[in-house]
User: What shape does this take?
Amino acid sequence: MKLNILGCYSATPRAFTNPTAQVLEINNHVFLIDCGEGTQVQLRKHKIKFNRIKHIFISHLHGDHCFGLAGLISTFRLLGREADYTFMHLKA
Assistant: This one.
């Protein structure tokens, strides 16, 4: 199991921190948990390949947890991604 914290700070942008996003790898399965703004840049910095992400979980619909999702899905398409991925909104 490997966990990369891509962002874990407040809902407002900061110069040195990023909104919430984590990548969890278990048995070669890669899960993106939340997708705040800046997640794509952080994925690149951590050398996590976009095509390895097969499951996306959004904990709740506050902007700092999901505003990066539309851009990420758009990038998937721009990169020619054809593989399926699972998207889930976690309900309390």
Summary: The chain has one domain: 2-89. The chain has three helices and five strands.
